[in-house]
Write a structure and sequence with these properties.
Layout lengths: L5 E3 L1 H4 L5 H16 L3 E5 L5 H15 L3 H4 L10 E3 L23 E6 L27 H26 L8 H4 L2 E10 L15 E4 L5 E6 L5 E4 L5 E3 L7 E5 L1 H6 L9 E3 L3 E2 L2 E2 L2 E11 L3 E2 L16 E2 H14 L7 H10 L1
The site of 2-oxoglutaric acid (AKG) has 11 residues, from β5, β7, β11 and β14.
Length: 343
Amino acid sequence: MFTVPIVDISSYVAPGGAADERALVARSLDDACSGVGFVQIVGHGIDRSAIDGLTSALDEFYALPLDTKKRYTRPGENRGYSPPKSESLSMSLGVAAANQMNDFYEAFTVGSEWTGFPGLDLPAASYPANTWPDAAPGFRPAVETWFGAARSVSRILLAAFTDALGLEPGYFDAMVDHSIDVLKMNNYTLPEGEIELTGELTGMGAHTDFGILTVLWADQVPGLQVLDHEGRWHDVQPADGALLVNLGDAMARWTDDRWRSTVHRVDPPVIDGRIIRRRSAAFFFDGNHDAVIQTLPGHAPADRAGYPPITVADHLQAKLAGMKSGIAPDGADREARRVLAAR
Ligand SMILES: O=C(O)CCC(=O)C(=O)O
Ligand SMILES: [Fe+2]
């Protein structure tokens, strides 16, 4: 049976949580991360009101006319509004969609800005300034609240993962103290002006996430699917109040795939040619632009070369070029083959 385990992380959320409870949590996380590579977390301490604020913000913005939303596009940058069919997630793996079409989701992306780290002189290419939609005045405050909450949970999870990997506390600190954090808020609905969903349009194509870990809030509307180790797709819906957490490519590289950057995709239900609207918000904890991701001590394979070292910025750049411009990245062959075999 395929299930995404539920882990209560409250002992890590509470300062000074009991060591034996934390050890149990770390064990459960290790099981989940070396198994499905997805976990549902409860006891995350985020207030219900922050989630309600986020969903209202999404509703307020996405209800705007397409022409208004398009005022907030930022071509070539991982910020602002992405209209339907402007991106292809499967191209981040180097897999062209079967029908050569882009994904039908629309998204709005915000993230950590270079101005937020005075004195560090960070490159604006990795830390672009945000665009906020003035046509949806409630959007910014609610999204900033969610961003802060998801950001704290991602740090707490990294502390738990550090224990789960048997590393000394703080092992990753110097790699995440000016992390590229990105929140991508997705809306899956019938693109404006289309009466019926035609052909084989994909909600969001198969991909792995690019960073360290992802904290994913998602509607309970079905649509998210996860690829298991045997090449079968499984539906995943979060339990009430749970957040989904999945690992990204940095974690897979650090552990030489003992922990997987699990391939996933999204196809919301279509009934009589109409999509059941679905929303999600993926918070990507990506690490410092200049952090070098290389196999952790004790994880290097004995019989073959592991992943070559790569900086966070170079990895993200290659993946985003696939997603936004259809330029296939090098070295994603293994996951690409698994996606093709699963069809
Ligand atoms: O919509 C979802 O549930 C998943 C979104 C996702 O995978 C992403 O934004 O990377
Ligand atoms: Fe994803």
